Each structure stands twice: as C-alpha cells, then as structure tokens.
Amino acid sequence: IFLPHLVASLEVEETYIMVKPDGVQRGLVGEIISRFEKKGFKLTGLKLFRCPKELAQEHYKDLQSKPFFPKLIEYITSGPVVSMAWEGVGVVASARKLIGSTNPLQAEPGTIRGDLAVQTGRNIVHGSDSPENGKREIALWFKEGELCQWTPAQEPWLVE
Ligand code: IDP
Ligand code: MG
C-alpha cells in the first residue's frame, strides 16, 4: 500500500509536535525535544500551557465520532502540554517515524513511543500527519508573534 504521509518529501515543511500531559508528568519533555533537535530539525515555536477543552476538541475534530473521543479530550486537558513547531526538509513524515506507531507496543524500538510508552491512550507525543495538517495545527495552537524565524548556526553542516 502507498502511504503518502510516510514518504519523506524534499520540501521544507512545518509540523506541530506536542508533548502530551503524560510526557510532561513523566519528565520526558527534554528527552522528546532532544530527539528532534539531534535529528537536525529547527525549532520555531515552543510553549508549555494547559490547553482548553475547545482547543483539544478542534485539534482532534476528525476523531469526534470515535468511542474514545471523550476520554481523549479528558487526557489531553488533564495537565500542561508542551506545544512545538518544527521546520525542515521532509519534517512531517520524518517526525512521524521518529515518534513511531500510535500503539506504543507496536512502535519500533528506537522510536519515541517504542522506547518510552506502552499504551495508545498514553502515547506521550503528537505529530501532524500531513503538511496541510502541520500548517493547520500550528495556526491552531500558536498565536501570531509566538513563532520565531531564525537560522541555526549548524545549518550548512546539515544541508548541502
Ligand atoms: P496518532 O497520534 O498516531 O496520529 P490518531 O489515530 O490520529 O494517532 O489518534 C490520535 C490520538 O488519539 C492517539 O495518539 C491516541 O492518543 C488517541 N487514540 C487513538 N486511538 C485510540 C484508542 O483506540 N484508544 C484510546 N486512545 C486512542
Ligand atoms: Mg493523528
């Protein structure tokens, strides 16, 4: 099967990554940020806050009809989350690979969920599933002026 969201593109993209409340409570914020930093992606937005119910519902609106939806909203609003915007070539699909499968027991070792989580309902991190959703989610979770455009000193050592 062709899984377009798993094929890394050659385009510079943006993705919305979020450490969910269990990741924050378990002290995994640094570890999770570190995986994306070390890979070579560029952080362009970062904040810790407790997200309102309406925002969680809008973010997960495609899952509205699922039986687990109310519990998902309860989970995401149960404590502070760390919202991040990351930029880079092929970042959307690459971040999904770094994160691993939705069910942490099926996620490969070496991935964030594969190494650090056990249950789908406590899978510690979110990543956008397409470039379109990356843009949509960053616009949803960040206000104007909260994002920062900059050139990392390491850039010429990462990209030819
Ligand atoms: P993803 O986060 O890997 O993109 P989605 O299918 O988009 O996975 O689901 C969004 C989130 O909803 C999951 O990360 C997980 O927290 C939660 N979720 C998905 N399926 C289930 C389930 O069957 N039970 C409980 N929670 C679920
Ligand atoms: Mg998803």
TrEMBL record:
Residues 12-149 form the Nucleoside diphosphate kinase-like domain. The lineage of its organism: Eukaryota, Viridiplantae, Streptophyta, Embryophyta, Tracheophyta. This is Nucleoside diphosphate kinase. The active site is at 126 (pros-phosphohistidine intermediate). It catalyses: a ribonucleoside 5'-diphosphate + ATP = a ribonucleoside 5'-triphosphate + ADP; a 2'-deoxyribonucleoside 5'-diphosphate + ATP = a 2'-deoxyribonucleoside 5'-triphosphate + ADP. One of its GO terms (biological process) is CTP biosynthetic process. Keywords: ATP-binding, Kinase, Nucleotide-binding, Transferase. Its EC number is 2.7.4.6. One of its GO terms (molecular function) is nucleoside diphosphate kinase activity. Its cofactor is Mg(2+). It comes from the Eukaryota. The chain holds residues 80 to 239 of 239 of the full protein. The gene is LOC116188027. It is an enzyme of class 2 (transferase). ATP binds at residues 20, 68, 96, 102, 113, 123. Belongs to the NDK family.
